Amino acid sequence: MSESIARLIDHSLLHPTMTDEQLAAECEVARRLGVASVCIKPYAVHMAAQLLRGSGVAVGTVIGFPHGSSATDVKAFEADRACADGATELDMVVNVGKVLSGDWEYVEADITAVVAVARRYGAATKVIFENDFLPDDATKIELCRICERSGAEYVKTSTGYGFVKQPGGGYAYRGATEHDVKLMRANTGPAVKIKAAGGVRTYADAVKMRELGVTRIGATASEAIVAEERAAQQAQQTQQAAQ
Q1: Any idea which residues carry the catalytic annotation?
Q2: Alpha helices in the chain (DSSP H)
Q3: Domains of the chain, each with CATH number or no CATH
């Protein structure tokens, strides 16, 4: 039997309306489910590290979230503070405006600065592209190459908050798509892992991402995904017993 889908999940605790009480409760959910990590709002890293000590659930947070527009030295400071508070995984957002400007030297220096801080603490860096904002595959491929040169451990599809204004005036996002995950996997070496985030809400979604080579999934619906997995396993066992 393959490893539980829970071990792929970064339980996302980033919604701006989440209270301290809710964050603490969701850390306990993460412990109970046995997920890979929580990805929690930066100010709450210390709390999460205390609550999850000894659980096997890593503590992660975000840097330059959600649009990557902080100055590079500010991102580096955020990374240092997060690691000092107990984070072992950092999900940083590329400077989207600089990416769209084609200022690749800036983009690479921005990523490298955060990776350097993370490595001092033995932490992993996941670089968020926010693919919904990017115009073409060539841009995503260039980001893959930059991330590999910079030593980032992961490339990540989305923040989950990259809403794009639609012709009718509403906002929507696609998040992690099969096309983008395949593209990112094809354009990074085996040392770079893939994280899918945004729109992965069901066990079937998570399994599809795992089949595409994803090793981490950002999800808010972690409890439902794991419950679906357990129900599917129970149904399979019942069917096998009846044969």
Answers
A1: 91, 156, 195
A2: 20-33, 45-51, 72-85, 96-101, 104-121, 137-150, 178-186, 203-211, 222-242
A3: 5-242 (3.20.20.70)
